[in-house]
Design a protein that fits this description.
Layout (H helix, E strand, L loop, with lengths): L21 E6 L3 E6 L4 E5 L14 E7 L5 E6 L3 E6 L4 E5 L14 E6 L6 E6 L3 E6 L4 E5 L14 E6 L5 E6 L3 E6 L4 E5 L14 E6 L6 E6 L3 E6 L4 E5 L14 E6 L6 E6 L3 E6 L4 E5 L18 E6 L6 E5 L4 E4 L16 E9 L5 E8 L5 E7 L5 E7 L2 E6 L9 E9 L4 E6 L2 E7 L12 E2 L11 E10 L5 H4 L15 E5 L15 E2 L9 E4 L10 E2 L20 E3 L6 E6 L3 E6 L5 E7 L2 E6 L6 E9 L2 E9 L1
Antiparallel strand pairs: 1-2, 2-3, 3-4, 5-6, 6-7, 7-8, 9-10, 10-11, 11-12, 13-14, 14-15, 15-16, 17-18, 18-19, 19-20, 21-22, 22-23, 23-24, 25-36, 25-40, 26-35, 26-39, 27-32, 27-36, 28-29, 28-35, 29-30, 30-31, 32-33, 33-34, 36-37, 38-39, 41-42, 42-45, 43-44, 43-46, 46-47
Length: about 650
Amino acid sequence: MGNNLATGIVTNPLQISNEPNWAFVSAGEFYSLAIKKNGTLWVWGRNTNGQLGNGNTTQQNVPVQIGVDTDWVGVYAGFSHSMARKANNTLWAWGRNTDGQLGINSTAVQQTPTQVAGATNWQKASLGRNHTVALTNNGELWVWGSNTFGQLGLGNYTNQLSPIRLGNETWKAVEAGDYHAIAIKSNNALYSWGDNFSGQLGLGDTTERNAPVQIGTATDWKTIAAGLYNGYAVKSTGTLWAWGDNYKGQIGIGNFNQQNSPIQVGTATDWYSVIAGNESAIAQKTTGTFMSWGDNQSGQLGNGSTLPNTTGQNTPGVMGCAGNILDFDGVDDTVVVTNNGTNVLGDNTDNGSYTFEMKVKLNDVASNEILGKMEYIPTFKGFGIYTDASGYLNFVQAYDNTLSIATSTSPLVADTWYRIVATFDYTSKTHKLYIDGTLHDSKTETGTPNFSTINTGIGYYAGASAGHFDGQINDIRVWKVVRTPQEVASYTRNSQAVNSGSDLIAHYKFNQGIANANNAGLTTLANEVVGGPVGILQNFTLNGSSSNWTQDVTANETLDSNTFAVVEEVLVYPNPSNGIFNISLKEEASITIFDVLGKEIFKEKGTTGVNVVNLSNYRTGLYLLQITTESGAIIKKIIKE
């Protein structure tokens, strides 16, 4: 685990480093390899066969750096041997080498990285128990190591101490199981070879094959994974298929019966990709949700439990990834913001202007109180943001003994994320309502604004006539100034810019809990602004089934920038791409790419003209491209196939 403990079980995802600069990680049999954004290589875990590559066989309980090189771009962990790729596309290997699985033309164990013989244009590698399969940048498939079960696919059973090309075809993907392999050809057809004792080849029988055989006739396979004795694949239609050994429920079909041919996992059509463990699997959906199933005796499903090894979890269940959303039940869930002195979240005796910006989704179109505080006796005081029974969004501000209401031009609909901005200018006595960067209504009054001294509420506020909020909130920011129309224009549904200066008095990220797990121990909503008011959670069950933290990648498309203006159009092509993206810029800009969880995976300074970005080493799916210049930033979706 790399958490400085030699033993123990962790049942929910655990952060092992406070450094936000990890780029790539690969988990082997009781050990792990990782690369930082600066290109350095780090390892931890079991080291019996020198698989950590640090020159000895001593176990490491925390990440340690291998050498001083800063040009590592890919890591691949196996049973007891390891590989890594450098920026020049050379492949390096170390660890156990009993059958030539290191590909260095010998069977000598290597305790430090040693270059693999042959090609210098490697794209990626996948490691079985004692064999290795790898692709080059031009789609050639190379194999080496043990061939006891024909797992090299060469039509024989002879071990290979150095890489040898398998056939003359070109391939898109290849994954190694324990003693078998699965691959996708350039025409998107699916093939397998090697050991087949448990039907892991998906060919309808249990007969081993020493050469590639096509699985079925479909030619729309997109991504694959190989477990110990089984296989997984996602089609371009978004359906997930699995086959092979199912003793621990690792097929995910609700039973423990072996499957000798691909069988669809559920009926969902929104799967992105899948990763196989020995007898478990983790898959990602287009929503960003991670699902896991199979063996769980060591907590490998990440769902906060250790279901018995003999039963496991035989259907996909949401794993305990970090939540980025708080779900309000519409009954009594409330967050009460602690009073914060003289600004709008306090008593606003500063008589100051303010801006609220938030990202929300309604579970149901009804009267929903989203945020505010109101008093009616003896006079109207306060402000509020709410929807009426028809779904129209309203922003109310009290003036003297009058309520002035700005209303959206169209109703909100359920199950859709909206970015809402409400601004109030004390000098001009004007308050405005924006949705997804567009102004919907503006009200200007002549009276004196009245402010309430009671606590601000999120999800419900005292004095309002609407009901408790039934929906989800991803993000709330509060400024003690008015954001300009140009600034608010950058607050679109899928992107925003954030001023992180002294005018920001509150930033609630709603990211404290573990998605769909038991979060009953949490009682406060954290404020990212030091010294700012926190929120007190009231009436939330947080028990894993209702009014809880959850996760949605479409809500996580919000990325921060230090400026507001939108930069000129950026061209990205091809998009989707197999990994090579051309980014055409009209001026110098910073190019940053994030995965669907908001983690930065790539960053460089772009120049005027076409810039080439290579994501071949990363998994298929959705990524977010951020282009930042001195004048502003934009975000675009890119898809790696």
